[in-house]
């Protein structure tokens, strides 16, 4: 089964000093890079997703700002596909599905940010489109959230969303587990 790697929103605003700093984004990006290197070695398809906000007065990923640029730790190489999105679901109003089909991809490996937003919605959409999905948990990042006056720590958000995706949407593993089973 041909695999393709989807790297979602590893952009400057999610890192230290950015407008929407995530917990452990450096570690997630480091694991994304390990995945990128493995896919490059195998000459397997790679797809970068870059979110550009279309809202009036966005708080992050504002167009033409340093914050919306793909982080230098995972810079795309020449001829690697970069798709711009404006919604959490990387398939919505993009050519991602067409690129995956053209490359003959049947299984998507998903990493990036944010776990509870773009990783979740993209994985569920891929599943609905018939792809086998694999999410690399430690190559994804999130942040603390608040609901109804209650703080939900990033580690709890991460665990809840990985648990929710596990069945039936995706296989969930760490970077080490995934690379060891290649």
The shape is globular
Note poorly predicted spans. Answer: none
Number of helices: 5
Please provide the count of β strands.
8
What is the correct CATH architecture?
A: 3-Layer(aba) Sandwich
Secondary-structure content class: alpha/beta
Give a written overview of the molecule.
With 182 residues, the protein is α/β, with parallel strands linked by helices. It has one domain: Rossmann fold (3-Layer(aba) Sandwich), CATH 3.40.50. It contains 5 helices and 8 strands; from the N terminus they run βαββαβαβββαβα. The strands form 2 sheets. It has a 6-stranded parallel β-sheet with strand order 3-2-1-4-5-8. Helix 3 packs parallel to helix 4 (154-166). The protein is globular.
What's the quick description here?
With 182 residues, this protein is of the alpha/beta class. 31% of the residues lie in helices and 24% in strands.
For the structure shown, list the relevant keywords.
31% helix; Rossmann fold; 6-stranded parallel beta sheet; two-stranded antiparallel sheet; globular; 8 strands; 5 helices
Layout: helices, strands, pairs:
Elements: E1 3-8, H1 25-41, E2 46-51, E3 81-85, H2 96-102, E4 107-113, H3 115-128, E5 132-141, E6 145-147, E7 150-152, H4 154-166, E8 171-173, H5 175-180
Parallel strand pairs: 1-2, 1-4, 2-3, 4-5, 5-8
Antiparallel strand pairs: 6-7
Helix pairs in contact: 3-4
Protein name: Streptothricin hydrolase
InterPro entries: Isochorismatase-like_dom, Isochorismatase-like_hydrls, Isochorismatase-like_sf
Domain Isochorismatase-like: 5-176
């Amino acid at each position: 089964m041909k695999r393709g790697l989807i790297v979602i929103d590893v952009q400057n605003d999610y890192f230290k000093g950015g407008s929407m700093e995530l917990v452990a984004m450096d570690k997630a990006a480091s694991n994304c890079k390990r995945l990128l290197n493995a896919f490059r070695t195998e000459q397997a398809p790679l797809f970068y997703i870059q979110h550009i906000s279309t809202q009036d007065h966005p708080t992050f990923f504002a167009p033409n700002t340093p914050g919306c640029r793909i982080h230098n730790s995972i810079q795309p190489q020449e001829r690697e596909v970069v798709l711009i999105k404006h919604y959490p679901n990387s398939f919505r109003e993009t050519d991602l599905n067409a690129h995956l089909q053209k490359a003959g991809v049947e299984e998507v490996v998903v990493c990036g940010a944010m776990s509870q937003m773009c990783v979740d919605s993209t994985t569920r959409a891929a599943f609905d489109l018939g792809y086998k999905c694999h999410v690399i948990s430690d190559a994804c990042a999130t942040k603390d959230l608040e609901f109804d006056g209650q703080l939900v720590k990033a580690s709890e958000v991460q665990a809840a969303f990985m648990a929710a995706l596990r069945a039936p949407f995706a296989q969930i593993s760490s970077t080490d587990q995934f690379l060891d089973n290649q």
